[in-house]
Design a protein that fits this description.
37% helix; 4 helices
């Protein structure tokens, strides 16, 4: 549990520091009609998912961030097609909620936070 708290604290720190750039990336996905369900992918080791928007280290961030979409997660088999409606219900309002897919070592999970 302490490690989970550390992960959440470091994510929260990044979200507070880089809120503007992360929100702009999410909003761009929606504004350009790419998807109504953008997803931030937070990771510390390389991942082939989404497009890079913030790199850990040089930027001072605790995590690297890519922006992805619900559609990419479905295409890559990370979310089953039959579970898309359930995912959208949990996501609620993409204009008020940030969806993070947090990849830490061999663990990955979704975190939803208010914008």
């Amino acid at each position: 549990m302490p490690q989970e708290h550390e992960v959440l604290r470091s994510l929260e720190s990044d979200l507070n520091k880089y809120k503007k750039v992360l929100n702009e990336a999410l909003q761009t996905v929606q504004d350009q009609d790419v998807s109504n369900y953008p997803i931030l992918v937070a990771f510390r080791e390389g991942i082939n998912l989404g497009l890079p928007i913030l790199e850990m280290g040089p930027s001072g961030a605790n995590w690297s961030y890519n922006v992805s979409t619900l559609e990419e997660f479905v295409t890559k088999g990370l979310i089953e097609r039959k579970k898309v409606d359930a995912f959208k219900k949990v996501y609620k309002n993409p204009n008020k909620t940030i969806c993070l897919f947090v990849c830490e070592k061999e663990d990955a999970h979704f975190v939803f936070a208010p914008m």
